[in-house]
Amino acid sequence: MKTENRENMLLTEREAAAFFGWSVFTMREIRKRNEIEFVKFNSRTIRYTIEQLEDYQRRHLSLTATGKKGEGQ
Questions:
Q1: Residue-range domain boundaries for the chain
Q2: pLDDT digit string (tens) for 19-33?
Q3: N or C: the chain end with fewer CB closer than 10 Å?
């Protein structure tokens, strides 16, 4: 049986939204504002790597106990 490395997985927009606990609409809005990197295969196929999601999470969602945001904000 073939197993993929976690880093090599490509997630759909729905799966990426679930990663953050967001709606697909929110995921699309974040992408359209160019706030998150993504992979585009053709005019309709959008995918995200775990690395891209974790990078966004570090840059935009990393509130510390002191209430300060991570770098980039």
A1: 8-60
A2: 999 999 999 999 999
A3: N
